[in-house]
TrEMBL record:
<dbReference type="InterPro" id="IPR032092">
    <property type="entry name" value="PilW"/>
</dbReference>
<dbReference type="Pfam" id="PF16074">
    <property type="entry name" value="PilW"/>
</dbReference>
<protein>
    <submittedName>
        <fullName>PilW family protein</fullName>
    </submittedName>
</protein>
């Protein structure tokens, strides 16, 4: 009996030790997995935003300001109003502060205290009726390097930098009206942090697309775990000899400032989807803006929070701005 009790005690001791090692290993694995997933999500979100911003203001040579740009599209379901409208190319870049769930008219589920980023441009792939690649193929149909997609929107733009027209790919553009024109696929995206009860906060966007029956502005979820988005425009001032970039609060920017944006600062706060029940409380302060001209801003999750978070940032140079 004594030997049995000793064996049971040793067995329980070994089981306790193995269990402790397993718990520590499991916690370490969970922590490592959370860090890896958060960092991967943060890099991908920055890539999506910076890649879109890099083409900001590019309209294939057409002047994006009215009245030179004519809209030939029918009403678009779910479109925003005002400067956020997907066909308002004159306001091709805007940043809106989300003080409520509805920062712009087509968004009703935005995370407050975050930013909404509005970008309109064209994809840098030209379509022509052959003049750009084969002079013998000028048959009056845009088909080079391929035919236009009937379910996408294009900008028929003058290469002389003046006129332009939006149209859907199922309608052949008026080649006689802009004889030197080139077609470019039109892109309109409104990025924001989507906050839906019971779900992780997500970097999402409202995008112009074909839903099978009509053109709509629809919601696309992009990266889960993005908790805050901060966008600070850098406006070019001074002159061509001594240019200066000043990062500004969007509320202080004028119309001429918006078309003079030479760079954009991006900051994202990204959190892990999993909670570590045995981890320490992460009552930390995550700085989103650091006291420059655009102010100072931070986020505190509060006591008891057990999610891993990180703040990532990138500055994107805007190559197609228009100096007033």
């Amino acid at each position: 009996m004594l030997e049995l009790l000793v064996a049971m005690f040793i067995g329980l001791f070994l089981i306790g030790g193995v269990s402790a090692i397993y718990i520590v290993s499991k916690r370490g694995y969970t922590e490592t997995e959370n860090v890896s997933r958060v960092n991967e999500s943060a890099r991908f979100a920055l890539y999506l935003l910076s890649n879109n911003l890099a083409h900001l203001g590019f309209f294939g040579g057409a002047n994006p300001n009215p009245p030179s740009l004519l809209n030939s599209l029918a009403a678009i379901t779910g479109d925003c109003t005002g400067t956020a409208s997907v066909v308002d190319t004159a306001n091709h870049f805007r940043v809106v502060k989300a003080t409520s769930a509805t920062p712009v008219s087509c968004i009703a589920d935005a995370q407050s205290d975050s930013d909404v980023l509005i970008i309109k441009s064209v994809r840098p792939v030209p379509f022509s009726d052959g003049a750009l690649d084969d002079l013998s193929d000028n048959d009056g149909t845009v088909d080079a390097p391929e035919a236009l997609n009937a379910n996408r929107v294009y900008l028929w733009a003058s290469r002389l930098g003046s006129d332009g027209q939006l149209f859907r790919g199922n309608v052949q553009p008026d080649l006689t009206r802009i004889s030197d024109g080139v077609a470019w696929e039109y892109l309109a995206n409104i990025y924001y942090v989507r906050n839906v009860a019971g779900r992780e906060p997500t970097l999402s966007r409202k995008a112009l697309r074909w839903n099978g029956t009509a053109l709509v502005v629809d919601t696309e979820d992009l990266v889960e775990g993005v908790e805050r988005l901060r966008v600070v425009p850098g406006v070019l001032g001074g002159n061509y000899v001594t240019p200066q970039v000043k990062y500004m609060e969007t509320a202080d920017m004028t119309t001429s400032d918006w078309v003079s944006v030479a760079s954009v600062q991006l900051r994202l706060l990204v959190r892990s989807a999993d909670i570590d029940p045995g981890g320490v409380s992460r009552n930390l302060r995550y700085v989103l803006l650091e006291g420059n001209e655009a102010g100072y801003d931070y986020f505190e999750p509060g006591a008891g929070d057990r999610r891993y978070r990180t703040v990532v940032q990138e500055t994107v140079n805007v190559r197609n701005f228009v100096y007033p």
